[in-house]
Specification:
There is one protein chain. The chain has 12 helices and 11 strands. The strands form 2 sheets. Strands 3-2-1-4-9-6-10 form a 7-stranded mixed sheet, with helices on both faces. The radius of gyration is 19 Å and the shape is globular. 39% of the residues lie in helices and 16% in strands. The chain is α/β, with parallel strands linked by helices. The relative contact order is 0.12. Helix 6 crosses helix 7.
């Protein structure tokens, strides 16, 4: 039976237009934020609210946002710099009660049917409880030229495959109130990535609805360069940096431990054992655990070697 927030009947008939909150965090996004906001406000759904928290921008981002606020297009929160994870959590907390929520990055462009497609997909899924919608996306350059479809989900999603890999891209996410409440019970403490965290919680306690069709343009700029379109040698270097670079490993380890501390006793026994080993096990228990952790075989090998070396 489809009982998601009373927006669907048991026969799949839409009862009313669901309310949707778009939650955005901005920081020095003057070059792209106007185009992104216009694409969000042009979504083909009627009951839409946009909450933007600025994370202490030093450029003209705040001036641009205040223009949208004065027109009544957004609710603006001006905050001090605390990093994008806490900023997203704060904006989500300030949003209030809605049927659905979604994260928006400041430099993408949404296609007009992004949200309506997500809500329709959720409504078509026979599921109750926490639900998370995600999709593939279209990589493009900073001028939105040469879009290329992503290939994020190769072998399916489950709890184990979310422990060590952030598969669900936050800018594609749409989720219901149950997931929002469950994923935010501990705040942003030790959360390495907000989208990874929501994917973890959804895979453990709810349903992930995956859409193979992209509904947004994801800019590849110097700050968010993706592996799409790289040569084999560039791709190898990217994957090594992705796992080993920028001091990420301790933060990922802390996120796993936080997840186990908050939710361990509620997990399915099989997943509980996987997460317990990831959070508390020795390097051999982690490296030689059964099952699959990563989407790509080469990434799986690299991860296992990382675990065996005791680096994660």
């Amino acid at each position: 039976m489809k009982t998601l927030d009373n927006t669907w009947s048991s026969t799949g008939e839409k009862l009313r237009d669901p309310s949707v909150a778009v939650v955005m965090s901005t920081y020095n996004g003057e070059h792209y934020v106007r185009e992104q906001l216009d694409s969000v406000l042009s979504q083909d759904i009627p009951n839409l609210s946009v909450v933007v928290r600025d994370d202490g921008s030093k450029d003209s981002t705040l001036r641009i946002l205040k223009q949208y606020e004065q027109r009544g297009d957004i609710t603006l929160i001006c905050g001090e710099n605390e990093g994008y994870v806490r900023s997203f959590f704060d904006a989500l907390s300030a949003a209030g009660d809605f049927d659905y929520y979604c994260f928006a990055d400041q430099d993408d462009i949404w296609l007009p049917d992004k949200l309506s497609s997500a809500i329709r997909k959720i409504g078509e899924s026979s599921t109750n409880g926490p639900v998370l919608y995600c999709s593939e996306l279209l990589y493009c350059d900073e001028f939105c030229n040469n879009p290329q479809r992503s290939s994020l989900n190769h072998i399916g999603l489950d709890g184990q495959r979310m422990v060590y890999e952030d598969i669900c891209s936050g800018n594609t996410m749409v989720f219901n109130r149950q997931l929002k409440n469950l994923a935010t019970i501990g705040g942003a403490v030790d959360v390495f990535a907000h989208d990874w965290w929501f994917g973890l919680v959804a895979s453990a306690f709810g349903t992930i609805v995956w859409d193979e069709t992209p509904h947004l343009l994801y800019r590849r700029t110097g700050n968010n360069a993706s592996p799409s379109g790289m040569s084999p040698s560039q791709l190898a270097k990217y994957r090594v940096r992705k796992i080993f670079g920028n001091g990420k490993l301790p933060k990922i380890r802390q996120q796993i431990r936080r997840f186990y501390a908050l939710y361990g006793n509620q997990l399915d026994p099989k997943l509980r054992e996987v997460v317990r080993h990831a959070a508390q096990g020795n390097r051999f228990q982690k490296a030689f655990a059964s099952g699959r952790y990563r989407q790509k075989g080469s990434d799986e090998v690299l991860l296992r070697l990382t675990l065996l070396a005791g680096l994660l």
